[in-house]
Each structure stands twice: as structure tokens, then as C-alpha cells.
Amino acid sequence: MHTVLVVIHAVSGITGLLLALPVLLAPKRRGRHTLLGRVYVGAAVGLSLSAVGLFAYDPARLWGLAVLGALTLGWVLGGFWFARRRPHVPGGRGWRIWHLNLMGSTVIAFVTGFAVQMSDGHLAAWLAPTVLGSLLIARATAREVARAPRRITVSPAG
User: Fold this and answer.
1) Could you read off the pLDDT of 21-70 as tens digits, one per residue?
2) Is the residue at 138 inside a domain?
């Protein structure tokens, strides 16, 4: 079972890393973005669940993997939910901002996991993707907020 989990984890991780940039760069409408996005979500779910499964084999050493897996699962399911339901959130484009931040966080998780694996757990591999990714998410969020329709509110004279 351990080998199966490692294979699922590796294939999911590679798939997510390869799809992250094309999904981010695809026009945000039906078609390429949604198709690649669904495959990306599947990869993130596979990665997250296999991370929790692998944690069971060596909890003392893989606790960080379990935390990252649990967070990633929450982020990807939340981001997918916002994209599918498009709930009304104050701010006009509010659901898109939530989707962008949650899915961007999953990309940070994929890159962090890869960096940690390649660096044998170096502290910089845990921190650098989060710092850089958070700056990129903040920039994209600011752009999305700037695109939001401006609403003129009229308050009663009084």
C-alpha cells in the first residue's frame, strides 16, 4: 500500500506542477481554464489524500506533509466550490477573489512540497515559495479588485 500511495503522490504532484502555469495563464472562461482546472483539482485532491495516507506510515517524520496535505485539500475544495457556485460575496467580484486566493495557495503548496523534497527539507524551501507566492497572489488580487465594477451608491439626503 505504501508504494501505491507514493506513486499516487508522485504522479499527482508532477501533474499539478505541470498544470499550474497553463491553468493560471489560460483565459478565465469556459474551455481551457475549466478543463485544465478540473484536472488540476483532481491532482491536488490525489496529492492531498496520498499525503495524509503517507503520514500514517511515519508520523514523526512526515507531520509537515500531513499538515500541507490537509491545508491543500481545504484550499482546493474551497477554490473549486467558489468557481462552481459563484456565491454573492460583497465586492462585486468577491467569489473570483476567493477562488484566486485559494487556488493560488494550492500552487504554493505544490511548489513548497517539490522544493522541500529537492532540498531535503531545508527551511528556505518551506518559506520561499510562500513568500514569493503570496506576493504574486496579492498582485493578482489587486488587479482583480481594480477590474471590479464600480458601484455608485446613493444615500438618502438627510
Assistant:
1) 999 888 888 899 999 999 999 999 999 999 999 999 999 999 988 999 99
2) yes
The string of DSSP letters for 73-125 reads: HHHHHHHHHHHHH----TTTTHHHHHHHHHHHHHHHHHHHHHHHHHHTS-HHH
> What is the 3-state composition of the chain as percent helix, strand, coil, each rounded to the nearest 5?
80, 0, 20
Domain-located, residue 38 = yes
pTM higher than the cut 0.70: yes
Number of separate domains in the chain = 1
Q: How far is CA 62 from CA 1, 11, 73, 113, 143, in A?
A: 17, 19, 17, 12, 37
pLDDT in tens, 118-139: 998 899 999 999 999 999 999 9
- Structural domain includes residue 158: no
Domain limits at 103? 2-147
